Amino acid sequence: MGADDKSRKGNAGSWRERIPDAQPASRARSARRKRQPPRPSYPGLPGEEPRPAVIPGPTRRTAGPRDSSSPYGAPSPRPRKAPRPAPQVEYDEEKATPERSSRPSGKRRKPGFTIFGALWFVLTMPFRFIGALTRNIRWFISWPLRILLSVSFVGIVVGAILVFLYGTISNRYDISEVKSNIPERTVILDRKNRTIGTLHGENRRRVPLQEVPPIFIDALLLREDNRFYDHGGVDWIGVGRAVAQVIKHKRATQGASTLTMQLAKITYNHQERNLHSKLTEVALAKRIEATYSKDEILETYINRIFWGHTFLGIAAASRGYYDKEPRDLSLSECATLAGIIYGPNDFSPLKHPEEARKVRDIVLGLLKDAGKITEVQYAAALAEPIVTHPPQSRSEENYAMDLVRRELDAILEEEDIRLGGLVVHTTLDLDLQNATLDIINKHMTALESRKDFKKHLASLQARREKRGIVKNKLTTKAEYEAALAAYKAIPAEQREKTQPPMPNYIQSAAVVMDNATGALLAVVGGRDAEESKLNRAIQSRRQT
Fold first, then answer.
1. Contacts of 19 (CB under 8 A, 6+ apart)
2. Domain-by-domain residue ranges, the chain?
3. Helices (H), strands (E): how many in the chain?
4. N or C: which end of the chain has fewer CB within 10 A?
5. Helices 275-291, 259-267: crossing angle, 10 deg rounding
6. What is the 8-class DSSP label of residue 184?
7. 203-383 — its CATH code?
8. What is the pLDDT of residues 59-109, one digit of tens each?
9. Is 44 exposed, middle or buried (0-12, 13-18, 19+ CB in 10 A)?
10. Which pLDDT value is given to residue 360?
11. Are 344 and 236 in contact (CB under 8 A)?
């Protein structure tokens, strides 16, 4: 053993003395080579500088020279490239959660399927499609085009919803009522087919379109709906014009209703004026146009429309204003009736002849501009004054009509009474009815003029007073008529405080029958049905 071996042996003894007994040399060597696991470091924690993460794992030994300072000759660690520093993130203690601080965040979770998301996708799909179509166009063209296409799409969708909604609402109405539900007066005829009077229903008499002058039809269409034969129930040009007037004047200055829409309104009695009612009328007008022809709609319209006062339909209006049949109306009268439809009571030729003349002249101008009349006809019609000829007041109250009304009320159903429009043939004779009434009045007047009638009247009055009847004193018909005239001469404010005279004059009754057939020919229940409603022929204690 040489010198080197001796020195090495001596050093070994001293080295063993420095190692504690509880730790063998082999453990000390392995403990020196063992690396501690890296401490996880998160950038941004307070009080800690960012450090590069150390990845644990086996290291590769290199066959280089051993470090002389190391007793075991352990290789020097290989220099590692400094990692890129992590970005500094400001730390917020309030937002930090135990989960975030204890473990790193994983991948972002994809949102699941939701109904709202699917609905939003469907709603925005058309706009995305519009954007995709216009993405290769310059921006100053693409954006106006996108807005235009988007607004058009929204308009189409809203229109489709409204069509479906109000189409469903209009289906609730019975469209057959347009022609069937037209109340008119029930006409009572005598045995010679002469009119005795009318009952029930409304002041209307239906006439076919052929009985109306063509110039009246032209005037009506030019005044109310000049594109009646061109549209399908709704005049969209008129709607646009009405909207433009609303924008211009800030209020509705003209309507956009067609004749068909007006017919729907008066048929189903739509009194409210709002958007819902107007859209319902539009849907009903479409159904009416699909059900009836243009001539049927026009004929129903002129028989339904209100012409002021109590006149319903062209026949009642021509009779009430001019005492004529519709076919006998002149050019000026046709223009007047066509012009007053817009405001029948405001332009009534009976109450407001000057206003009626203004609308008549407007309609005549429309007819001239449309080439329906010549300049000569136009000038002649303008020169005509507004002259009306209302029929003589003929009371519907007479004893024969009262008897017929009682019989009909017992026979007819309530719906027939409401609608009217019936033609009732009776055995009554109008000539004999009037003759019987005249004879009774003539005979009773002659009786009252006798010298001894006053004495007889006083005797009757005394008997009445004995029975306690002292309120209404008996008089003659002439005395009653004089008292009634004096009552009507009293001013209106004083008339309300005064009792009108009572018709307490002598009455009479008569019944005329055909002995061969038993037919009732005339019935008179008193001297005047307007003054005394009691039908003494069938209601008195001693009936005729």
1. 25, 28
2. 123-170, 203-383, 427-539
3. 22, 5
4. N
5. 110
6. B
7. 1.10.3810.10
8. 444 444 444 444 455 555 566 655 666 555 554 544 444 444 445 555 565
9. middle
10. 93
11. no
Sheet holding 195-199, edge to edge: 195-199, 186-189, 423-425
Torsion of CA 461, 463, 467, 468, to 10 degrees: 30
Tokens 């909604």: give the residue.
165
Question: What pLDDT is attached to residue 98?
Answer: 47
Torsion of CA 362, 367, 371, 377, to 10 degrees: -90
- Give the C-alpha separation, 284 to 129, whole Å: 37
d(CA 142, CA 154): 18
- Please spell the DSSP secondary structure of 185-210, one letter per residue: PEEEE-TTS-EEEEESS-SB----GG
- The b-or-e profile of 153-187 (16+ CB within 10 A means b, else e) is eeeeeeeeeeeeebeeebeebebeebbeebbbbbb
Rounded-to-integer distance, Cα 199 and Cα 196, Å: 10
Cα(101)–Cα(52) distance, integer angstroms: 18
Between strands 423-425 and 510-513, the pairing is unpaired
Give the C-alpha separation, 242 to 251, whole Å: 10
For 386-423, b/e burial (b = at least 16 CB within 10 A) is beeeeeeeeeeebbbbbbbbeebeeebeeeebebbbbe
| Phi, then psi, of 416 in degrees rounded to 5 | -65, -35
**Strand pairing partners for 520?**
513
> Would you state the structure tokens that stand for residue 372, as one six-digit string?
């329906």
Angle between helices 314-322 and 331-339 (to 10 degrees): 120
Q: CB within 8 A of 185, min separation 6: which ones?
A: 198, 199, 200, 201, 202, 203, 204, 205, 420, 421
DSSP line for 386-398: ----PPP---S--
Residue with tokens 């080295």, as numbered in its chain: 15
* Three-class secondary structure of residue 512 per DSSP: strand
- Residue 190 one-letter amino acid: D
* Both tokens assigned to 403: 């008897």
Tokens of 112: 């699941």
- Give the mean pLDDT of 266-278: 82
Residues whose CB falls within 8 Å of the CB of residue 111, separated by 6 or more in sequence, listed in order: 117
Least confident segment among 193-197, 211-215, 372-376, 433-437: 193-197
Residue 541 has pLDDT above 60, yes or no: yes
Q: Packing angle between helix 375-383 and helix 331-339, nearest 10 degrees?
A: 70
DSSP lists the bridge partners of residue 198 as 187
Question: Would you state the pLDDT for residue 503?
Answer: 83
* CA distances (Å), origin 146, targets 141, 151, 162: 9, 8, 24
pLDDT given for residue 110 in this prediction? 58
- C-beta of residue 307 within 8 angstroms of C-beta of residue 340: yes
pLDDT of residue 480: 86
The span from the CA of 523 to the CA of 506, in Å, is 18
